Every structure is written in C-alpha cells, then in structure tokens.
C-alpha cells in the first residue's frame, strides 16, 4: 500500500501544482498511511514526504504544516540514521518547525539531535529543561553550545556540575548565563584556573562577580580585573579628603596594627584587620597569607591606610623573605596605581566595608552582592 502511494507521488512530484484543497486532501491520505503501525515502505515514505515538503516549507499553509509535521513525527522513527540526520538538519533551519517532530529529533542519537539542540528557538525552555533531565552528556554538550541559549536552561546545565559543560557554556558567547548562573560558576572558579580564565573572557560577567575572582586570580588576571574597575570608575568625581581628626584616628589604628605584628601577634593582627575591613576573619587570613600582597594592598588602600603603613605591614609579614626587598617595593607600586574608589569597589564586592572616600559610586545590585561568608566558603 505504501509503495503504491509512493508510485503515485513519483508521477506527481510537485505538490505545488495542485490546488490547496487537493494538496491538503492528499496530505490527509498520507497521514492515514503514516498512522498504520507498520508497513514495508514506511522508511521510503518518510524520505519521500520530507523531500517533497521540507524544501518548500515556507509555501505551506498552517493546516498543511500541521499535517506534514504529524506525518513526519509518526514516521521518523522508521527512518535510517542517515535519513533522520538529514531531516534533523533541514528541520533545524525551519523558523516554525513542528514542535513534536523537533522533540523527537532532539532526543534521538546525539549525532542526529546535534543540529536541533544547537539551533536556538526550536523548543520552549520547559522542554529543554526536561530534556536535560532525561538525556546524557553528549546531548548536554550540544545544548550548551546552542545559539541564544536562555538563562533558565543554562542554569539547569550548570546544576549538573560538570566541568566540560561549564566550559562549553562560557565559550558560547551567545548563551545567556544570567547572574544566578555566573554566581555558581564564580564559586567553582575559586579552585579552577581554567574556569576562572573562561569567566574573565565573558563580556557579560558582572563586575561585582569578577571582583570576587580577585583573591584566587593570578597576577596577570588581577591586573585585568583592576583595569575593568578603572574603566568603570574613571569618570567618577574625586573623593573628598578625610578630615584631620579622621586622618589621626587612622594613623593610630595603623600604628596599632603594625605594633601587633612587631609583637609577633599575627592572630591578633588578623582579628583587628578583619574589623577594620569589615570582612570575616577567614577571608582576612586569606588576604594576609596571599604571597603576592596585591589583596593586602587593595584592602589597605580601601581602608584609608597610607603607603608607609601598608609597606611596613608587608615587610613585617615576611615580604622580604618571600619576594626580596626590591620586589616588595615594586609591588607596592600598585598602591599608587589604584585609586581609593577602585579599591573600595573591590573590597565592597568581597563583602567588606571601605572607608568613606573609597565607597563605590554605584554599589552592586543585591542579587549580585556576595554574602558575608562568600570568600570564606571559597578559601
């Protein structure tokens, strides 16, 4: 029966020549054939219909598209892998592809599903999230490369906690990852150099989250983060100078911190410094232990310390033994390069409390601000 119908189709290879009512009636006959559970010509019928109609999809009316979509959805399982792959490529290019057919192809073998999963806009978010729960790694990787991937779907992929998925998402410039997704990835990047580098290349990574990578970053990455802060704050009006009374108070505070280190009371120093910066002690201890001293210099600048105080603290923390005296002084050049406002923005994004003249002009939004224990968790 299928073969007889195909022979009739071959004698009339161009449905465009038929009137619309005749064509719709012919499609309904094909649908009746497709609904039969089996038949020797199902695979050939699938190829015949896809060749006849997918190539001229834009010319079909809504009713015709509906019937063709149902026919193909019913027959596609009978096709060979090569036929299904060819259909998937053609369906992926249709702006209004039949949803049921798309769903079937999206859950086919990975090499068949690939063009469907990579092309955005074919399935709603709910379908894609459900697919993530049902399918395996190859489908996930293909989906992570989808054009204009919605943030909700990206977050479902991030929840899988698979490094290769995270990397594929971050290298997909058209994926919408969103603040919630970026927050999870920033936490993971505290101990993953490759992930941190991929995050820093994203043009849509919020600055407040980028700043939370600073403590884990390498020297060159830290310079890059500082450059991004300078670019955002370069037009900010100059900060007001502290009063004479405030300057004296800070000098007494800094002298107290230096005396603690001279007495080799490093634990007490960490406690006092954490109170100065408004950071948890675990985060402050991490900053103090950093071998490059950049976080300490940022903290000092944001807290209103002068250069001499920061230099003394670095030397008393063993900077000369760690790096050599000349290198310590070279690195202290960062103190002069970074404005109080840039340093204050970083300290704010770490969860700390900068001094008045270092307060950022535009504090980060609540949904992007780190919690008080964020850095402690990543230490």
Describe the structure.
This protein has helices at 2-11, 20-34, 42-53, 62-75, 81-92, 99-106, 110-118, 125-134, 137-144, 151-158, 163-170, 178-189, 193-200, 207-211, 219-233, 244-262, 266-277, 281-289, 294-302, 307-316, 319-323, 325-331, 333-337, 340-349, 374-378. Helix 7 runs parallel beside helix 9 (137-144), helix 8 packs parallel to helix 10 and helix 17 (266-277) packs across helix 18. 65% of the residues lie in helices and 0% in strands. The protein is elongated. The protein has three domains: 1-109; 124-208; 244-378, no CATH class. By secondary structure, it is mainly alpha-helical.
> Which regions contain 5 or more consecutive residues with pLDDT less than 50?
1-19, 363-379
Number of domains: 3
Total helix count?
25
Give the structural class.
mainly alpha
Average predicted local confidence, pLDDT: 86
Terminal-residue CA separation: 71 Å
Strand content: under 5%
């Amino acid at each position: 029966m299928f073969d007889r119908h195909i022979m009739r189709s071959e004698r009339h290879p161009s449905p465009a020549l038929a009137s619309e009512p005749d064509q719709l009636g012919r499609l309904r006959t094909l649908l009746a054939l497709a609904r039969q559970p089996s038949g020797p010509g199902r695979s050939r019928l699938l190829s015949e219909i896809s060749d006849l109609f997918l190539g001229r999809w834009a010319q079909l009316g809504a009713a015709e598209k509906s019937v063709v979509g149902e026919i193909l959805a019913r027959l596609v399982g009978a096709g060979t892998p090569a036929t299904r792959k060819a259909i998937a490529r053609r369906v992926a290019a249709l702006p209004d592809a039949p949803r049921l057919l798309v769903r079937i192809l999206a859950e086919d073998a990975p090499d068949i599903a690939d063009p469907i999963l990579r092309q955005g806009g074919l399935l709603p978010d709910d379908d894609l999230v459900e697919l993530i729960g049902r399918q395996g790694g190859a489908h996930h990787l293909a989906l992570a490369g989808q054009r204009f991937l919605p943030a909700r779907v990206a977050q479902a992929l991030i929840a899988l906690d698979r490094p290769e998925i995270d990397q594929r998402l971050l290298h997909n410039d058209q994926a919408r990852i969103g603040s919630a997704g970026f927050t999870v990835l920033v936490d993971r990047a505290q101990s993953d150099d490759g992930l941190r580098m991929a995050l820093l290349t994203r043009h849509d990574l919020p600055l407040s989250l980028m700043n939370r990578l600073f403590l884990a970053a390498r020297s060159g990455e830290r310079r890059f983060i500082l450059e991004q802060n300078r670019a955002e704050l370069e037009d900010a009006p100059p900060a007001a100078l502290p009063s004479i009374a405030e300057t004296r108070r800070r000098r007494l505070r800094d002298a107290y911190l230096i005396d603690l280190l001279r007495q080799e009371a490093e634990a007490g120093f960490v406690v006092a410094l954490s109170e100065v910066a408004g950071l948890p002690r675990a985060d402050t201890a991490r900053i103090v232990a950093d071998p490059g001293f950049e976080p300490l210099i940022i903290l000092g600048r944001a807290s209103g310390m002068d250069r001499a105080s920061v230099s003394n603290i670095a030397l008393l923390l063993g900077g000369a033994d760690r790096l050599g005296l000349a290198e310590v002084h070279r690195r202290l050049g960062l103190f002069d390069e970074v404005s109080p406002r840039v340093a204050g923005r970083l300290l704010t994004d770490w969860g700390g409390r900068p001094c008045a003249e270092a307060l950022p002009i535009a504090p980060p939004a609540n949904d992007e601000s780190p919690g008080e224990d964020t850095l402690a968790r990543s230490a």
